[in-house]
Every structure is written in structure tokens, then in C-alpha cells.
Amino acid sequence: MRINRIFLRAQPVGRRISWADLIVIAGLIAVIFGLIELSRIAPHVISAPKISTDPRDLPLYAVFSTTRMFLAYILSLIFTFVYGSLAASSKQRERVLLPILDILQSVPILAYLPMVVMALTAILPLGIAKEFSAVLLIFTSQAWNMTFSWYQSLTTTPRELKEASSIFQLSPWMRFTTLSFPFSAIGLIWNSVMSWAGGWFALMAAEMFHTANRQFELPGLGSYIQQAANDSNYRAIFWGIATLVVVIVLLDQCMWRPLLAWADKFRLDMVSSEMPASSWVYDAFSTASVIRRFRRKVVRPAARAFDQKMRSMFPPRLEFHQELKPIHHNRPIQVILIVAMSFLLFASFRFMANVSFHDWGLIALGLLATTFRVFLALTISVAWTIPVGYAIASDSKISKYLQPLTQLAASIPATALYPLFLVGLLRVRGGLEIAAMLLMLSGTQWYVLFNVIAGARAIPQDLKYTAQLMGLSGWEKWKTFILPALFPFIATGAITAAGGAWNASIFAEYTQFGGGKYSTAYGIGAIVSGSQNASNYPLLMASTLTMVLAVIIINRLVWKRIYATAEERFRLE
To answer: Which tens digit of pLDDT belongs to each residue from 59-97?
Structure first.
């Protein structure tokens, strides 16, 4: 009976277009209009000195790119904690914020990159605008999956832990430090690793792009590799990718592995784990006397002072649990919203009046083709990442070899290797379609894999012992224990992977290499890229809005229902 009630509750949510969706569409149309108007008055040339392909410049370029990545990651963390907390704390806010988040993570970065950059150059000094736009565009490839992970952790926190925090009247800050962050730490850090991989993926586009009459360049690893690819300089491509690999390995050893080892203490275990995460850097910092003295004299007093300051800023408040009341929509607000929507739709239709019926037909066919590619890439990703991710998290021998390899493979942007794929595959019949699928697969699989690893690492060890005592094995063990425990993490990985596939479609279906342009026969990503490259803003707006509408429908019919199921049926309690 309980399962039936859950499905009766979840199904209507996914079958109708709500006021939240109308607000999202209206806001997006208004933003696009504003960006287009600002981009028209932007400078025609917004470029740095020509990007050098001399390997001696790579260390400095690596510093530039890594600094942009760090700044974007800090912005992503702030956005994650604020936005995810707001969405998880209120059903009313959730109905508006989640669709917006799903659209933002699904609309490809290259669909709005030129307009954002040119709009910023129209209102900010050129130097500040270039750096800020690069950081902002890297942020768009890092923030969404972290926010979904944080939201998923907040909504699946065991009820008894939430009730205990309410009984003890913990302040918002104390609840964050003692409940919300510890419970979500493992998933958040694994998604942070994936966010950095997504940041490297977007780096080439964020540091260099060209339209019909404008060019944008910033010195960095992304622009170095792209310039080398445009020049067909394979030696420079090799050195650029080699430098990127060195940076990724250093970050993995000095930042992500220590963080994963530190987060292992937040596991919900009644017994100790059989294979705790380890890091030689973390062990060295934990045992070094100089570091211990620094922590005791500097870090801990500063942390206590900061904690006291935050407690005073966010004091405890009495909470009374009440039944949720039905939402009564305010009629005047509805009327205003309908009028605003009508005006924006009329303006957008007038703006897109130059889009021919033939182009609309190509947009429809392109949407179907790209949707099929997204579905196929997601299906392949889920099929192999669930068993492999669980094996990496559960078997110490497999983890020892595969975990660093997967982190390295995920962090190397496929956009950097894509020109090399094209060289070999363009000679094969259907080679561009194969290359496009490979690139879209690289934009999806790692999101699912890292979330599965995080979910498997978060399973309490005592539950694993219980499954062994019950004699569960084979498919019975997967059906009754492993898949239910992993389901919330698979849901988060799948929705962010779908967004990654839509993002990758822009680069996969239309690319420039060696002075030539290559495009798949059909694909909405190819239409978006081609129209922005030709500064055809009506076609760009038409194809982008079509993609957004498709994402909204998929969100309401699929992802909303999956999240409702994860929250109600597969909560760890």
C-alpha cells in the first residue's frame, strides 16, 4: 500500500506543465533578448595577443587555466550550498528551482557563450570582461552536478537524523556543520572531481572561440590545444595534452585523494570499513609535527572564531512541524504572468520570423536525432558504469588500479582529443557519426560512474554484513540490496549525464579542425553551433528555445518522477 501511495503522489507531478515552467520559459526568453541586444554593441575584436604554441609557454598557461578553474570552483561551491539548500527546504521553491537547474545544466555552454561574452564586453572593461566571462563559463560546467548531489543528499537524509536536529533545536549553521555537510560529503567530493573534469572539458571553448566577425582568445591550456589543433600542429597538441595530464595528476594526488580520505570519516557505519580511502599526502599532513602545530596554533583557533561568528549570525529558531497546506495561486500574479508571457512570446516570434519552414523542419529532425544520441549515450553509460563503479568502491584490488585511471581518463577533456579521432574516423563511412557518439559518451559516462562510486562508498558496512548473513548473492543481491542503495546516486548521475550529453552535442555535431568545418547530417547541436558561428541570432534563438522546451518536457515526464521515487522509496533509514 505504501508503494502505491508513493506512485500516486509522484505521477501527477511529472505529467503537467506548471507555473514554474512558464516562469522559466519567460525568464529565459527575456535573458536571451537582453544578451542579443548587448552583443550587437560589443566590440568586433575581443582578443588577446596571438596564442603561442611554443611548449616553453605551457607552464605559464597552465597557471592561468588552473587559476580560472579554482575561481570557478569556488563560485560553484557557493552556488551549490545556497541554491541546493533553498530547493530542498521548501516544496514551493523546489517546483521553481529544480526545473531552472535542469534547464541550465542541459542548455549547452556553446549555445550562449558568444552572447554572454559579448554582452559582458559591452558593459565591463575589456580585460575584466574577458577573464570574468571565462570563469563564468567554466562555472556553468562545474556547478550543476554538484548542486544536484547536494540537493539529493539533503532530500534523502534519514528522517531520524532530521528529527534529532529539530529536537536539539540546532541552528542553521550547526545543522549544516553537524548533519547536512557530513552526510553529503562523500557524494559532494566525488561530484567535485567530476566538476573539475567538466571544467577541463569546457576550457577550450571558454578560452577561445570565433564567430563570423568576432574572435575571443585568452592565454591558457585550452586555447593552446585548440590553436595547435587549428594549425594541425600535432607536436604542440602532444605537449599541451601532456601538460594537462601532469596538472591533473598533481591535483589528484595533492587535493582530491586527501579530500576523499578525509571524507571517509563521515560514513554512516556501525562498524569500521574494510577498505577505507587512503592518501599519502593526507597521511603526511596528519603525522607531520609542523602541520599538527600549525593546526593547533592557527587553524583551530581561526575555525572556532569563524564558527562562533556563524552561530551568532544564524541563531537557533523554534520549529513546528505542520501539515503542508494546498497552494492557492494568486490570481493577479497569474494574470500578470500570462500578460508577460504573451508579450515575450509575441516578441520572440517576431524575432524568429526570418526562420523559414525549412529551417524549422531541420530543427525538428535535429532535435529527434540529438535526443536519440543522448538516450543512446546515457543507456551505454548506465549499463557499464553501475557494475564497474560498484566494483571500484567495493574491491580494494580493483580500486587500487582502476580508480586513479578513471579519474585521469575523466579529467582529460575529450574535446582535446577530438581532432585526433576525426583524423582517423573521417576516412571511414559514417565516421563523423561515430566520432560524435564517442564524444557524447565521454560527456555522460563519468557523471554516472563517479556518482555510483560515491553511492557505493556511502553504503554502511553493517548493511553489507547483513546482506552476507542473509546469504544474498548474484541478481538477488543486486535487486534487493545494491540497486536500491545506489538508486538516489544513479538518479543524480543520470540527470547530470543527460545534461552533459546535451552540452557535448554542440561540439560533437559541429566542429572546426585544420581549417575545415565538419557537421553531422542532422542534429540540433550542429544547428546551434552553425548559427552562432554565422551570427544568425534568429536561428540560434529558435534552436536553443526548442532544446529548452524539450528539456522541460523530459524533466517533467522523467527526472521529476525519478527524484520523487528516490526521495520516498530509497531513503537510507
So the answer is: 888 998 999 999 999 999 999 999 988 888 877 788 778
User: 141 Cβ partners below 8 Å, 6+ apart?
Assistant: 109, 195, 198, 199, 201, 202, 503
State the average pLDDT for the chain: 76
Say yes or no: 123 and 262 in one domain: yes
Asked if 543 and 502 count as a contact pair (C-beta separation under 8 A), the reply is no
Residues 6+ apart with CB under 8 A from 303: none
Q: Are 484 and 456 in contact (CB under 8 A)?
A: no
- Does residue 187 form part of some domain? yes
* 455-508 tens-digit pLDDT: 888 777 777 777 778 877 778 888 888 888 888 888 888 888 887 788 778 778
Inside any domain, residue 99? yes
Asked whether residue 71 falls in the same domain as residue 165, the answer is yes
Domain assignment present for residue 446? The answer is yes
Which residues neighbour 369 within 8 Å (Cβ) at sequence distance 6 or greater?
Answer: 520, 521, 522, 523, 524
Q: Is residue 12 part of a domain?
A: no
For residues 436 and 442, what is the distance between their CA atoms, to the nearest angstrom? 10
In the prediction, which pLDDT does 78 show? 93
Please give the Cα distance from 193 to 496 (Å, whole number).
14
Long-range contacts of 380-383 (CB under 8 A, 24+ apart): 380/441, 380/445, 381/441, 381/444, 381/445, 381/447, 381/448, 381/449, 381/497, 382/448, 382/490, 382/494, 382/497
Same domain for 230 and 285?
no
User: Which of 263, 281, 503 is closest to 374 using CA atoms?
Assistant: 503
In single-letter form, the type of residue at position 142 comes to Q
Query: Quick check: 281 and 257 in contact, CB under 8 A?
Result: yes
| CB within 8 Å of 439: residues ≥ 6 apart | 414, 415, 418, 421, 504, 507, 508
Model pLDDT, residue 554: 83
Identify which of 570, 563, 573 has the alpha carbon closest to the alpha carbon of residue 10.
563
What angle is formed at CA 169 by the lines to CA 165 and CA 174, rounded to 5 degrees? 65
Q: State the average pLDDT over residues 335-349.
A: 64
- In this prediction the pTM is 0.71
